[in-house]
Amino acid sequence: MNIDKASIVFNALSQETRLRAFRLLVQAGPTGLPAGALSEALGTPHNTLSFHLNHLSQAGILSSRREGRSIIYSADFQATHELITFLVKDCCSADFATIREDSTSACSIIELAQCCDPPSPDAS
Fold it and tell me: Does residue 73 form part of some domain?
């Protein structure tokens, strides 16, 4: 992912309703959620949510499919992986975060270093 694409994604996620919707879709996993269930869970009117979901889709971090009369939305986990990789590889010093591939699980593992000094014992 390049900085231009990352900026588009961050812009899409910078609005509360869109961020909340995206988080619900990540939690739902690859099967996703129907638009109606998202609308209900977020307490957001259908037309307003449609606008926000379209914004996330345009940013390339959501996909949708039709099942009968419902539109099912799901997070694009490949795009999310690319964004996280961009952050760790390009924005963080190796002193703070690294990504390694785990051959056993075939997963990427992010390792975060202790970024802050631990509180001193006499600090109260």
Answer: yes
- Strand ranges for the chain from DSSP E: 33-34, 62-67, 70-75, 97-102, 107-112
The CATH number linked to 92 is 1.10.10.10
Positive or negative, the CA dihedral 8, 14, 16, 19 is: positive
Q: What is the span of the domain harbouring residue 86?
A: 1-113
pLDDT (tens digit per residue) in 34-90: 999 999 999 999 999 999 999 999 999 999 999 999 999 999 999 998 988 888 775
**Confidence category of residue 92, pLDDT binned at 50, 70, 90:** low
Share of the chain above pLDDT 70, in %: 85
- Residue 45 included in any domain: yes
Considering the domain boundaries, does residue 106 fall inside one?
A: yes
122 part of a folded domain: no
Contact 56, 18 (CB under 8 A): yes
Among left, alpha and beta (phi > 0; psi -120 to 50; other), residue 108 is beta
